[in-house]
Amino acid sequence: MIEIMGFLAPFFMKTVNVYMIRHGQTFFNRYNRMQGWSDSPLTPEGIAGAHKVGERLAHMTFTHAYSSDTTRASNTMQIILSHNMNTTVPYKMTPLFREQFYGYFEGADSAQTWYMIGAPHGQKNLHTLLEHYTLDQTKDFMHATDPFHDAEDAVTYWTRLMKGFKMLREENRNGDNVLLVSHGTTIRSIADKFGKGQFPIEEGPKNASITKLQLTDSGINIIYYNNTEGLLQ
């Protein structure tokens, strides 16, 4: 609420455009290993992908830039910002937009991990799991399968992410364009939760792809998902 002539009136935020980018390819991506809060360096292909997306975004003006606090995300953002004409974009790293935490499965072979998680539910991999269950259910399945139960369940995960969106709203009240580098499962989860079934979330976003969100008074809207080519708006 804001005060106008002694009366309280609702505050209406202007639309915030968030260009959410998956970090460039890493060695764990290349080796098909689980990479949540664990980290590995960008591959040469990952560095080239970050430069490519930086070139695609170079014509746009951004008022703020954010990334998760993983090295792969921050290095991707630094490359992107090196291409932008506005070299004074304020930049913040935050744990709120980290990848899902995979607990015991961090660094493990992805195919083997999803077989262990899916087998009790009659499924052999993540793709078939998603044909029968939601992404949030897979988070809960992973938490249950983890012998330490350290992997984030859906409630824990979304509590963290929504704090991140609250931060974006509070720091960008003027209808800003914002850059955000995050992670594959996180971007896929956001598209699933807020995309109203419009996007093929069984296909994860590619490294260095762009997903556009709009934050409004009424919620979060997904404008496009997993964009890798073409003119950006």
Automatic annotation (TrEMBL):
Binding site for substrate: 22-29, 72, 99-102
Keyword Hydrolase among UniProt keywords: yes
Keywords: Hydrolase
Entry-linked SMART domains: PGAM
GO molecular function, one term: fructose-2,6-bisphosphate 2-phosphatase activity
Gene Ontology annotations for the cellular component aspect, listed alphabetically: cytosol
Family matches, as InterPro entries: His_Pase_superF_clade-1, His_PPase_superfam, PG/BPGM_mutase_AS, Phosphoglycerate_Mutase
Keyword Secreted: no
Enzyme active site: 23, 99
Biological process terms in GO annotation: negative regulation of glycolytic process; regulation of pentose-phosphate shunt
Domain of life: Bacteria
Protein's recorded name: Phosphoglycerate mutase family protein
